[in-house]
């Protein structure tokens, strides 16, 4: 099965910082990658799908890029509401859906 | 607006079964797969399987095959996840989520989650 590895596991940042989270796949998954934000006690919220498509209603400070095995989620200017845990997910139809282990964005 | 409403928290004994419901509203139920994901306390997200509400077809990752049953009731737009032979390792929040692109999809809307606690 294809594995996803996120880095870093924890990230300390300040409001206004540019933040980048990386997700690496053990094999190529083309652009079949999504990003989610999860806050404590809540369900995940879709941010990005198909590697770089912004979900409707998600602020434009969130962006995704990449293809094949390396992907990034970037928050251009971190806002107080963005402190949360972020997960990547692959969804190609040839192998089971898989999530990365998560990246927690903390206040510095 | 799209909404997935899940049933309430459950406390079960080891060896028991649990059935979690996920009632969809705000869209055509049979047009979108429903996926199930769980999250153990303090842990990441673990994918479990999907159901096609139109055909009733299902698929699961291997570790849940034989222990999880996914069903749906088209008349009430509700999907169900039934898990048998519960152990403490099954203590988790269980989420249903909608997949807008059939069997090869991200998840655009999620239920609020159902906590299943397994303890003697």
Polypeptide structure, described:
The complex is a heterodimer of chains A (108) and B (120). Chain A is mainly beta. Chain A has strands spanning 4-7, 10-13, 19-25, 33-38, 45-49, 53-54, 62-67, 70-75, 85-90, 98-99, 103-107. In chain A, the strands form two sheets. In chain A, strands 2, 4, 5, 6, 9, 10 and 11 form a seven-stranded mixed β-sheet that branches. A four-stranded antiparallel β-sheet of chain A has the order 1-3-8-7, with no helix packed on it. With 120 residues, chain B is an all-beta fold. Helices cover 0% and strands 48% of the residues of chain B. Chain B is globular, with a radius of gyration of 13 Å. The termini of chain B are far apart. Classes of the chains: A mainly beta (108), B mainly beta (120). The interface between A and B is medium-sized, with 23 and 20 residues.
Give the secondary structure arrangement, pairings included.
The complex is a heterodimer of chains A (108) and B (120).
Chain A: E1 4-7, E2 10-13, E3 19-25, E4 33-38, E5 45-49, E6 53-54, E7 62-67, E8 70-75, E9 85-90, E10 98-99, E11 103-107
Parallel strand pairs in A: 2-11
Antiparallel strand pairs in A: 1-3, 3-8, 4-5, 4-9, 5-6, 7-8, 9-10, 9-11
Chain B: E1 3-6, E2 10-12, E3 18-25, E4 33-39, E5 46-51, E6 58-60, E7 68-73, E8 78-83, E9 92-99, E10 109-110, E11 114-118
Parallel strand pairs in B: 2-11
Antiparallel strand pairs in B: 1-3, 3-8, 4-5, 4-9, 5-6, 7-8, 9-10, 9-11
